[in-house]
Amino acid sequence: MGGPGAYQSTVERFGPRREVPARAILAGIDGTDTAMRAAAFAFGMARRQDSRLIVVFVACPAPLTPLRPAVATVLEHDTATHLYAELRDQMRTSAEELRVPVTLVKAFGDPYTALRDTADRCRADTVVVGASQKAGHRFAGSVATKLIRAGHWPVLVVP
């Protein structure tokens, strides 16, 4: 398990260091195929528009975490930590290859709330997310649907 601050949010920057572009594109990633396609789309969009890219990884605890055995919680945390490390390496490599300034944010909690709050704080011009592949989201609504309903910024949903 991680040491002190293992569940602390972090911000890392990759890519070229230059004057901060006026436009900002935010992309949410979670390691799924649709999220990675959304990140690739956002990288291309940021490069074409000479924008900065804010990539947000949200680690969300399972809803019944307090009722689960400690071993399951530790395994879940280790999995999220490993996934974040892989995604961080991919974002760093892409930022350097494509010459796009990237800010990688690791947050904890509800994905919709974390993405909404980060987009507002960073004054994102566009939010890019992958389409949900979970059947239950047809009834309860997906993160993408909630972001669209928030109406703060244009939201691109990548299939």
Describe this structure in words.
- This protein is an alpha/beta fold.
- Helices cover 43% and strands 22% of the residues.
- It has five helices and six strands; from the N terminus they run ββαβαβαβααβ.
- The protein has helices at 33-48, 70-98, 111-122, 137-140, 143-150, and strands at residues 10-14, 24-29, 52-59, 102-108, 126-130, 155-158.
- A six-stranded mixed sheet has the order 1-4-3-2-5-6, with helices on both faces.
- Helix 3 packs parallel to helix 5.
- Residues 1-6, 71-75 and 136-140 have low confidence and may be disordered.
Task: Break the fold down into its secondary structure elements and pairings.
Blueprint (H helix, E strand, L loop, with lengths): L9 E5 L9 E6 L3 H16 L3 E8 L10 H29 L3 E7 L2 H12 L3 E5 L6 H4 L2 H8 L4 E4 L1
Helix pairs in contact: 3-5
Question: What's this, in brief?
Answer:
The chain has 5 helices and 6 strands; from the N terminus they run ββαβαβαβααβ.
List the defining traits of the structure above.
159 residues, alpha/beta, 43% helix, globular
Tell me the distance between the termini.
34 Å
Strand content: 15-25%
Classify the helix fraction into a percent range: 40-55%
Q: How many separate helices?
A: 5
Largest sheet: 6 strands, mixed
Secondary-structure element order, as H and E? EEHEHEHEHHE
The overall strand count is 6
Give start-end ranges of low-pLDDT stretches.
Answer: 1-6, 71-75, 136-140
Q: Provide the residue-averaged pLDDT.
A: 82
Question: Any idea what the shape is?
Answer: globular
Write down the Rg: 16 Å
In the sheet with the most strands, the strands line up as 1-4-3-2-5-6
Structural class: alpha/beta
